[in-house]
């Protein structure tokens, strides 16, 4: 049985992120662009409240990857990249809130600029337009 490739894999590392975690997850799940998966990278030793919040979600687009030892941010993200099914990777911190069109705007930008190998993109919270970008 083959696994469907998503267009975007959103990587969200979590370590004691309970303060904004639900709002952050909700902002991804409520995107206007729906062809994504959300990989929640739960760091070993994260508090029970963060785990409880994550466990409250039943959306099939969410995959929880629980680290069984403390990896830290870089290794946790590398693990997420290895497990991602998406054509593109998006980063999301557990205290970030994305505008509803974030993934759509970034996807369209990347598809139009496919000849580039990497992008750093910031979408303005107020306008939804790409405000800063650097391509490599």
* SSE arrangement, N to C: EHEHEHEHEE
Radius of gyration over all CA atoms, rounded: 15 Å
Distance between the termini: 36 Å
The gross shape turns out to be globular
Bin the helical content. 25-40%
Strand order of the largest sheet: 3-2-1-4
Written description of the protein model:
The chain is an alpha/beta fold and 136 residues long. The protein has 4 helices and 6 strands; from the N terminus they run E-H-E-H-E-H-E-H-E-E. The chain has a 4-stranded parallel β-sheet with strand order 3-2-1-4, with helices on both faces. The longest helix is centred in the middle third of the chain and has 12 residues. The radius of gyration is 15 Å and the shape is globular. The termini are far apart.
Throw out a few tags for this protein:
136 residues; alpha/beta; 4-stranded parallel sheet; two-stranded antiparallel ribbon; 29% helix; globular; disordered C terminus
Provide a concise account of the structure shown.
By secondary structure, this protein is of the alpha/beta class.
Detail the topology: elements first, then pairings.
Blueprint: E1 6-14, H1 21-29, E2 36-42, H2 48-55, E3 62-66, H3 72-83, E4 86-91, H4 102-112, E5 119-123, E6 130-135
Parallel strand pairs: 1-2, 1-4, 2-3
Antiparallel strand pairs: 5-6
């Amino acid at each position: 049985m083959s696994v469907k490739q998503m267009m975007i894999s959103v990587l969200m590392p979590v370590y004691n992120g309970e303060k904004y975690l639900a709002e952050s997850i909700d902002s991804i799940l409520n995107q206007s662009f729906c062809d994504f998966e959300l990989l929640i990278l739960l760091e070993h030793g994260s508090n029970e409240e963060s785990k409880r919040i994550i466990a409250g979600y039943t959306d099939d687009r969410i995959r929880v990857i629980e680290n069984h030892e403390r990896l830290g941010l870089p290794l946790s993200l590398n693990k997420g990249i290895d497990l991602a099914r998406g054509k593109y990777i998006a980063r999301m911190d557990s205290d970030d809130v994305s505008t509803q069109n974030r993934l759509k705007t970034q996807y369209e930008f990347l598809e139009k600029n496919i000849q580039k190998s990497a992008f750093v993109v910031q979408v303005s919270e107020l306008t939804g337009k790409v405000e800063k970008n650097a391509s490599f």
